[in-house]
Specification:
With 372 residues, the chain is an alpha/beta fold. Helices cover 41% and strands 18% of the residues. The protein has 2 domains: 3-139, Four Helix Bundle (Hemerythrin (Met), subunit A) (Up-down Bundle); 148-371, Translation initiation factor eif-2b, domain 2 (Rossmann fold). It has 12 helices and 16 strands. Bound molecules: 5-S-methyl-1-O-phosphono-5-thio-D-ribulose.
Length: 372
């Protein structure tokens, strides 16, 4: 673990008072632990997953979310399944595969796990499945840290070009592509954490990201924990901020990016990219190579866009002045609602793809080099 990783963890520890990742295996009690992200920012609740059903439920209900974290959780889900019943491997993979449709890391992780478990004897299956889940967990940390290293020069160069005329660099991000969306570090926010650590003065505009409010609840929470100045804005504010010179760069994560450079990410990302393009503002997606779907070039017809329940739009959860968590309806009772979870930002609106293996142009010629 690098010195920088330790210093970031120390900052995170101030909230939890212990070393914190979004998922980990507790060796003594043999528990798979997660931060229940549905309780944030009001309560930092750690829960343990004990079965395949727990893991499926955690992914589907978004107790864990974010493409890389979904993948690692699925790997632990396979371990939990075969630990309880060594004959349940195929059923487990199928059940986990169907928890969420859009993030490709889920399929990627399950593919890796099932390849590693092929031909393993029943009595050795749980041990090997745990080994794989822990490997994916560790790899994710290293990969996400490397994404930060790859993206750092972009923010440093931008700051050099702006430092004479402004006090800080203004970054806009959408949804949560931070440590909470991965095992640690994050993708888009890994770049931010790295730049902050080397002294680039930063300020992050955080889109609230309706309907699940990942920006309002999670991104502000983790940026504040890392002492990074941030301001929450409503989802429709980004265009105005870009038009009035208040955004220097947009960095987002991705749930699936095609070989052709189309970026599928949380609903609303596309509108930010359009506004950035119109205003000459660089727009980057930061993602692990495992988020690239090399089997498709163009996203529009090929990526399944998750549609979620109407209650995510009609209702909103919050904390009352008395400290009670309550859910209230914000719409008329029988209003028609659609709730698409993701959208596609076409490659031509993307300035570059930041990965653990460097920065690539959003096109097949450039991203295809990753296959070499
Ligand atoms: O529906 P979610 O919260 O799982 O969506 C997450 C996002 O869209 C993130 O921005 C994306 O997964 C990138 S996370 C590193």
């Amino acid at each position: 673990m690098s010195e920088l990783s330790d210093s970031l963890r120390i900052q995170t520890m101030k909230i939890a008072d212990e070393r914190l990742q979004s998922i980990w295996f507790e060796a003594d009690s043999e528990e798979v632990c997660i931060i229940d992200q549905t309780s944030l920012p009001h309560e930092l609740k750690i829960i343990s997953l004990d079965s395949l059903e727990d893991a499926c439920q955690a992914i589907a209900s978004m107790q864990v979310r974010g493409a890389p974290l979904i993948g690692v959780t699925a790997a632990y889900g396979v371990y939990l399944a075969v630990r309880n019943d060594s004959g349940s491997l195929d059923r487990a993979i199928e059940a986990l595969r169907n928890t969420r449709p859009t993030a490709i890391n889920l399929q990627w992780a399950l593919q890796r796990v099932s390849e590693a478990l092929a031909g393993i004897e029943a009595e050795a299956l749980a041990g090997k499945a745990l080994e794989m889940a822990q490997l994916l967990e560790k790899e994710d940390i290293a990969v996400c840290e490397a994404i930060g290293d790859s993206g750092l020069p972009i923010l440093q160069a931008l700051w050099e070009s702006k430092r004479d005329s402004q006090e800080r660099l203004n970054i806009l991000t959408h949804c949560n592509a931070g440590a909470l969306a991965t095992v640690d570090w994050g993708t888009a926010l890994s770049v931010v954490y790295k730049a902050h650590a080397v002294g680039v003065p930063l300020h992050v505009w955080v889109d609230e990201t309706r309907p699940r409010n990942q920006g309002a609840a999670l991104t502000t929470w983790e940026l504040t924990a890392h002492h990074i100045p941030n301001t929450l804005i409503v989802d429709n504010a980004g265009g105005h901020l870009m038009q009035t010179g208040k955004v220097d760069i947009c960095i987002v994560g991705s749930d699936r990016t095609t070989l052709g450079g189309d970026v599928c990410n949380k609903i609303g990302t596309y509108l930010k990219a359009l506004a950035a393009h119109h205003n000459g503002i660089p727009f980057y997606a930061a993602l692990p190579v495992s988020t690239i779907d090399f089997s498709i070039v163009s996203a529009r017809e090929s990526i399944p866009i998750e549609e979620r329940g109407a209650e995510e739009v009609s209702h909103i959860e919050g904390i009352t002045v008395g400290g009670q968590i309550e859910t209230v309806r914000v719409t008329p009772e029988d209003v028609a609602i659609s709730n698409f979870g993701f959208d596609i930002t076409p490659a031509e609106l993307v300035s570059g793809i930041i990965t653990e293996r460097g920065i690539f142009e959003a096109n097949e010629a450039s991203l295809g080099k990753l296959l070499e």
